[in-house]
Write a structure and sequence with these properties.
Length: about 775
C-alpha cells in the first residue's frame, strides 16, 4: 500500500505502517541531531519567522511556558535556547500554520475522520471555529458561541442530578482556567472532576500523602544538581523530560552518582550530548548512569525492599554510619515494624522478583549508603503498577531511614508529565478536595460546594458505561486515546447525550462522540490572549511547586477562538444564570481578579499577583521540605509496611508495558520515528527479548497480534486483542515486552487498576503473542470464545 498526498494540507492521507524500518537502538541522547530535528519540525509547521519568534520566547521569563512537560527551569539567568527537542515539537504542533476550518469538516465526514490514525488527525492543524454534530448528522457543522453555550446549558439543566455530568481536565490547562473550571463545576453541584493525573501520578500522590503528608515532590532543581546520589526509576528523561538531562549533567560534574532503574536501556540515561556545549557537538557527550539496573516489570518493590535490608545490615556493621537515628526517632512513625519486616526479606526472592543479581544489589546499596544527599526520581514506570502505591512507599522508606527528607540536596521527586498537571490539582481539580479548600471557596464566592466525592477517570468511564453519566465535557486533552480499555471507553462515550471537547487541535476524541457533540476551539499556550482589560497572562506550576507566569506571544490562528478562561466564564453564566453570585464577567475581563480569588482560597497562594510577578515566580510551601513537619495522620513521616508484591510471568506469556515513542508526547503523535529505539516509519511494533522470540517460536520481523489476559473479580478470563504488530528484538528483561500507547491501550482492562489510587495498570499487562493477519484494526475486546 502506498501513500497519497492530502489535497488540503500536503500531508499523508494514508499511513502505511507495514513499511517500518528497524535500525537498532541509539546509546546517546540529544546532540546536533536533536537541534536539526527541532528546527526541521518548526520550519515544516510554522515557517521561518514564526519558528524564530516562538522558540526565542519558549521558557523565557517574559515568554510562554512550554506546553510539553512540567520540568522546571533553573533560577537566575536562562539560556537563549531554554527548551528541548520535544518542547520544540510541542510548540510546532501548537503554533502550526495549518488550519482545520468549517470547509474541512464539510469535506470530511465523521466516519471518514474516525478511520484515520491519531497522527493524521493531529497533523491537520489548529481548529478555527466552534462546530456541532447533531443527531443524524454525518458532518460537523459551524455553530455560534452563544448557541453552543445554550445547547450545553439546556442539556446540563435537564439532568436528573448534577452528578450525571462529568468535567474532565487536561494537565495543560492554566491555573486561572483550572480554578474557574472547578468553581463552575462545584457551583453546578458536583465533584465529578476526573483529570489526567488520575491515570499518571495519582499513585504518587496517594503514597506521598500517606508517607509525608503532602502528595508533591520535596526537592528543587538545585537539590537535584547538588545531590550525591540520584536514583531514577521507571522514567525515561531522554524522551519524556529531556531538559532534566542538563541538570543530571550538572549533578555529575558535581560528583553525583546516578542509578538508573528501568526495564529498557534508554538512550538519555546512557549518554547525554548537550547541544549548547562543545562536548555535545564535537565530543562524545557525558555518560549519565553509573549503574543501570535492568528491572523486571513489577519488580521495583522487591528491589527497594532488598536494598532496605542491605542498608540495615550495613548499619549493623558500622552503627550510626547509615541510619539517621535522630531523624527516625524525632520525625518518623512505624520504623520498628518496618525494620522487623525488612530484616526478614528473602534476598533470593528479591533476585527472582526483580531480576537483579546479588552482586549488583550490593553495589547499589553501597552507593546509597555512601551518599549524604540522595534524591529519588520516578515516573509512570512505578505509578502504573498494581502495587504502585506500596512500591513508592517502599522507595520512600529508603530515604526516611537515612533522614533524606527536609535536607538540601535530598528528597522525593515524582517527575510529572503534562506542563501544569500539578497546578491543576493545586487549583482544585480533584474529585476529593479537602474541607479546608471547599469551605474557603464557599466563603469567597457565596456558593455551597457539594461534599460528596466525585468520579475519578476510571469511575467516570464506568459511570458512562452504566448509564449513570450522560454529559461529558473535556477541558483539553484527548480522553478517548488517553484512557484504558479503548473499546469499553469509546462505547461509554457514545452512550452520552452530549460530549463537549475544548481543544486546540483535532484528535480521536472528536470522532468518538455522544448523540450530540461540540468542539469548542480555544487559545493555546503560545497565543496572545486579549480580553476587555487588555492583554492577559496566565500562570502554571511545575513539578517542583514553582508557580510562574506564561505570556502568549503569537497571533492566534483565528479570530473566532476564545481562551479557556473565557469559555469557562461564559458557559458558567449560561448554565448558572444571571443571578449566580460569582462575578464571571469581571473575572474574564481581568485575570488579576482570578488570581486575587486564588490568593483567598488556595493554601500557600497569599499575595499571588505580586509574588507570581517575581522573575522566577514563587514556590508553594511544602512542610516536610521546609521545616520537617509532616501533616499526616500520625503527625510524623510514616514508614510503609506492606507485604512484598511482584509480577510473575506465566508460562508462554509476556508481561507488557505501554510506553511513549520519542516522537510523541502523551497522546500527541509528532511523527512515526522513534530515533532512540531505532524504529522508523511506524508505531505498531512490540519490543521482545531475543530469547523470548525464540522460545515462543517466532522470528524477528514477524507480524503478531497482542492478546491481553485478565481475570476479573468473578474469576472469569477476559481477553482483549490489538492486531498486527511487528516483532522487534530488543534488550528487555526475559519475560517482558514493550509497545507504544495509545495503540496498546485496548489491552489494558478498565478494572485492572492500582490498589488505593485506582490508576490503570499499564505497566504490567499479561499478554500472549499470536501470528497476526494483515490489516491494522483498533481492537477487539470481551471474553474469549469457547
Amino acid at each position: 500500500m502506498g501513500t497519497r498526498r492530502h489535497p488540503d494540507l500536503d500531508i499523508d492521507a494514508t499511513i502505511d505502517e507495514r513499511e517500518i524500518i528497524v535500525t537498532g537502538a541509539e546509546d546517546e541522547a540529544a546532540g546536533v541531531t536533536a537541534v536539526a530535528v527541532s528546527l526541521r519540525r518548526g520550519l515544516e509547521q510554522m515557517g521561518p519567522v514564526r519558528t524564530a519568534v516562538a522558540l526565542s520566547k519558549l521558557n523565557q521569563r517574559h515568554g510562554f511556558d512550554c506546553p510539553g512537560c512540567a520540568w522546571p527551569e533553573e533560577h537566575g539567568g536562562r539560556k537563549l535556547a531554554e527548551f528541548c527537542e520535544n518542547g520544540a515539537k510541542a510548540v510546532a504542533e501548537e503554533a502550526t500554520k495549518r488550519r482545520v476550518t468549517p470547509e474541512f469538516f464539510a469535506r470530511h465526514s465523521v466516519h471518514d475522520l474516525a478511520g484515520q490514525p491519531e497522527y493524521w488527525l493531529s497533523q491537520q492543524g489548529r481548529l478555527t471555529e466552534p462546530v456541532v454534530l447533531r443527531p443524524g448528522d454525518t458532518h460537523y457543522r459551524p455553530i455560534g458561541w452563544d448557541e453552543a453555550y445554550r445547547l450545553i446549558a439546556d442539556e446540563l439543566r435537564g439532568l436528573d442530578s448534577p452528578d450525571e455530568a462529568l468535567f474532565y481536565t487536561s494537565g495543560r490547562t492554566s491555573n486561572e482556567a483550572a480554578f474557574l473550571y472547578q468553581l463552575l463545576v462545584r457551583s453546578f453541584g458536583t465533584n465529578n472532576l476526573p483529570d489526567c493525573s488520575n491515570m499518571c501520578h495519582e499513585s504518587s500522590g496517594t503514597a506521598l500523602v500517606d508517607a509525608i503528608g503532602i502528595g508533591k515532590g520535596s526537592v528543587t532543581v538545585e537539590d537535584v544538581a547538588n545531590a550525591d546520589c540520584i536514583l531514577i526509576a521507571g522514567q525515561n528523561p531522554g524522551t519524556n523530560h529531556p531538559r532534566m538531562l542538563s541538570i543530571l549533567e550538572k549533578a555529575k560534574a558535581n560528583g553525583a552518582k546516578i542509578i538508573a532503574v528501568n526495564p529498557l536501556p534508554e538512550a538519555g540515561l546512557m549518554r547525554f550530548k548537550d547541544p549548547q556545549k562543545v562536548h555535545g557537538v564535537v565530543g562524545h557527550g557525558v555518560p549519565i548512569a553509573d549503574e543501570f539496573v535492568q528491572i523486571r516489570l513489577g519488580g521495583d518493590m522487591a528491589l527497594f525492599a532488598g536494598l532496605g535490608r542491605l542498608l540495615l545490615e550495613a548499619d549493623d556493621a558500622a552503627p550510626g554510619s547509615v541510619l539517621d537515628r535522630d531523624f527516625i526517632e524525632r520525625h518518623c512513625a512505624g520504623f520498628d515494624e518496618y525494620e522487623t519486616r525488612t530484616r526478614e526479606v528473602d534476598l533470593d526472592t528479591v533476585t527472582q522478583a526483580s531480576g537483579i543479581g546479588r552482586e549488583q544489589l550490593q553495589r547499589v546499596a553501597g552507593m546509597l549508603a555512601a551518599s549524604e544527599r540522595t534524591v529519588f526520581c520516578w515516573a509512570m514506570g512505578l505509578t502504573q503498577q498494581r502495587h504502585a502505591v506500596a512500591t513508592i512507599g517502599e522507595a520512600t522508606n529508603l530515604l526516611l531511614m537515612r533522614g533524606m527528607i527536609g535536607k538540601p540536596g535530598a528528597g522525593v521527586c515524582p517527575v510529572r508529565g503534562h506542563s501544569n498537571v500539578q497546578g491543576d490539582r493545586t487549583m482544585g481539580i480533584w474529585e476529593k478536595m479537602p474541607e479546608q479548600f471547599l469551605a474557603a471557596l464557599d466563603s469567597r464566592f457565596g456558593i455551597e460546594s457539594p461534599r460528596k466525592h466525585g468520579y475519578d477517570t476510571v469511575d467516570a468511564i464506568r459511570a458512562m458505561r452504566d448509564g449513570r453519566a450522560k454529559v461529558f465535557i473535556g477541558m483539553g486533552g484527548n480522553f478517548s486515546s488517553a484512557t484504558p480499555d479503548t473499546e469499553v471507553t469509546e462505547a461509554a462515550l457514545r452512550t452520552c447525550a452530549l460530549t463537549v471537547q475544548v481543544s486546540t487541535k483535532l484528535n480521536r476524541s472528536h470522532v468518538v462522540h455522544g448523540r450530540t457533540a461540540l468542539i469548542l476551539p480555544t487559545l493555546g499556550r503560545t497565543d496572545k490572549d486579549f480580553q476587555a482589560g487588555g492583554k492577559q497572562l496566565v500562570s502554571v506550576e511545575d513539578s517542583m511547586s514553582m508557580v510562574h507566569l506564561s505570556r502568549g506571544s503569537l497571533t492566534p490562528p483565528s479570530e473566532h477562538l476564545r481562551s479557556e478562561v473565557a469559555i469557562v466564564c461564559q458557559l458558567a453564566r449560561a448554565v448558572l444564570g444571571a443571578d449566580h453570585p460569582v462575578p464571571w464577567e469581571e473575572l474574564v475581563d481581568d485575570y488579576d481578579r482570578i488570581r486575587d480569588a486564588i490568593a483567598d482560597v488556595v493554601p500557600g497562594c497569599t499575595d499571588y499577583n505580586t509574588r507570581v510577578r517575581a522573575p522566577d515566580g514563587f514556590q508553594l510551601p511544602h512542610p516536610p521540605r521546609d521545616s520537617r513537619e509532616f501533616p499526616t495522620t500520625t503527625g510524623k513521616a510514616n514508614f510503609t509496611n506492606e507485604p512484598l508484591q511482584w509480577v510473575p510471568v506465566p508460562e508462554g506469556r509476556l508481561v507488557l508495558q505501554t510506553l511513549r515513542s520519542h516522537d510523541q508526547y502523551n497522546t500527541t503523535i509528532y511523527g512515526l520515528d522513534d530515533r532512540y529505539r531505532g524504529v522508523k516509519g511506524g508505531r505498531r511494533v512490540v519490543f521482545v527479548n531475543p530469547t523470548d522470540i525464540a522460545s515462543l517460536g517466532l522470528a524477528e520481523g514477524a507480524r503478531v497480534d497482542l492478546i491481553s489476559e485478565y481475570r476479573n473479580a468473578a474469576g472469569d478470563l477476559e481477553e482483549r486483542r490489538a492486531k498486527d504488530f511487528l516483532v522487534v528484538p530488543y534488550s528487555t528483561p526475559v519475560g517482558n515486552a514493550a509497545a507504544y500507547y495509545p495503540e496498546t491501550n485496548p489491552l489494558v482492562p478498565l478494572d485492572h487498576t492500582a490498589l488505593k489510587s485506582n490508576t490503570p495498570v499499564s505497566k504490567a499487562v499479561v499478554i500472549r503473542l499470536e501470528p497476526g493477519t494483515p490489516g491494522v484494526e483498533r481492537s477487539e475486546g470481551g471474553k474469549p470464545s469457547g
